[in-house]
Write a structure and sequence with these properties.
By secondary structure, the protein is of the alpha/beta class. It is built from 14 helices and 16 strands. It has a six-stranded mixed β-sheet with strand order 3-2-1-8-10-9, with helices on both faces. Strands 14-13-12-11-15-16 form a six-stranded mixed β-sheet, with helices on both faces.
Length: 381
């Protein structure tokens, strides 16, 4: 069984080609610039050339590409954006127009002259990934069983509703409906309508490979789930596991996994990494362990929010950290353990995607779990 798992972050996209016939350490991996970083580079190149830019495609992750688009307009050069692409910058298209972009429909976009730089937006580029593997003799087009993609999604908040609050209410609702890290993962045809970035990635996966099942998941829970593949993390409960990403920091308090091996969530909070200091994060983690962390203190400090599902005290004897900014707590008195599932922290989200495939697709459970347990063979591609 072969699964293409792609964890799309702000800085990198971390790609694992899982093969149940191989030892996990021998599976092929790529850590590449994220789609938003690549798009930002292309927009900035057009700015240097003094050329107008047309952005089309679908909603994707913002950040670097949004900053590049803003700078392009501020430099005095035209920027045209189709509606689906424009939602990358804001769900409210009037706000995209207010930043200086011109919203155009498909016919208007097609009528623009050939001197315009046309750039396609999207979090998942199957063709580029397949071509990269093909250069090394790996044929994805005829040797793949599924696609799994993780992206961070604020969701499509109604007018007047905070994006931060909307996302955290979604997180809390997922856990309340099913106390499991798997509650953040969906088959492509079951992605909630409000999660528009996940929906867009699902459409790209189905358009590229309509013959394959696709699974979508939020990045932060995927990384935490992947961290549990580290034997020390897996064997320690209660525990707090935090994913410290470039933009967002999410921490789960995990108690006994009764019934569901991916369950036992006793508390959670999410904040913006750039809005907190290491001492602040230590305080939040201690209060998560103490059981008295409040939504208000996280939200009022420009975070997303917090929810406690158990209010008893657990010792903060074990804090596991993963994510590209895992050194944020370097030197902390909490002495964080840096999770390295299968020896590779950067692939934590991708490993989490593989684990959730085993959990959500019963026909694959035995095969995937055997491979993750180190019972895979050593077959070549």
């Amino acid at each position: 069984m072969k699964i293409l798992a792609v964890d799309v972050g702000t800085g990198t996209q971390d790609i694992l080609l899982f093969d149940s016939d191989k030892e996990i350490e021998n599976c092929y991996k790529l850590v590449l610039p994220s789609p938003t970083v690549m798009l930002a580079q292309q927009i900035r190149a057009a700015t240097r050339q003094g050329t107008g830019v047309l952005l089309h495609g679908v909603l994707m992750g913002g950040g670097p590409c949004a900053w590049a688009a803003r700078d392009h307009v501020q430099a005095g050069y035209p920027l045209w954006v189709t509606p689906d692409a424009a939602r990358t910058f804001d769900d409210d298209l009037s706000r995209v127009a207010a930043m200086g972009a011109t919203i155009v429909n498909d016919d208007e976009a097609a009528a623009l002259n050939d001197q315009v730089v046309r750039l396609r937006l999207g979090d998942f580029d199957y063709g580029a990934i397949a071509a990269a593997f093909a250069r090394f003799g790996v044929d994805l087009d005829h040797n793949l069983d599924a696609i799994a993609i993780a992206v961070f999604d604020h969701g499509n908040a109604p007018p007047g509703v905070s994006d931060r609050l909307f996302r955290f209410e979604y997180i809390e609702r997922c856990i309340s409906q099913r106390n499991s890290l798997a509650s953040f993962a969906f088959p492509a045809d079951r992605v909630p309508e409000i999660m528009t970035r996940l929906q867009a990635a699902a459409r790209l996966a189905r358009a590229a490979r309509p013959d394959l099942p696709a699974l979508l998941m939020d990045t932060a829970p995927a990384a935490v789930l992947g961290a549990l593949e580290d034997p020390r993390v897996a064997q320690t409960r209660p525990a707090i596991v935090a994913n410290i990403g470039n933009f967002h920091c999410l921490a789960f308090r995990l108690g006994p996994a009764t019934g569901d091996p991916l369950g036992g969530i006793e508390g959670v909070f999410e904040h913006h990494t750039g809005e907190i200091t290491p001492p602040q994060l230590e305080v939040y983690l201690r209060r998560l362990a103490h059981g008295d962390l409040t939504h208000t203190e996280i939200f009022d400090s420009n975070g997303h929010g917090a929810a406690m599902f158990a209010n008893y005290v657990i010792p903060l004897d074990f804090l596991s950290v993963t994510g590209p900014r895992r050194n944020f707590l370097h030197g902390s008195t909490l002495q964080p353990y840096l999770a390295t599932p299968f020896g590779d922290m950067m692939l934590a989200g991708s490993f989490g995607l593989i684990r959730v495939c085993a959990h959500l697709i019963p026909a694959w459970t035995e095969t995937i779990e055997a491979a993750l347990a180190g019972q895979g063979g050593k077959a070549l591609w």
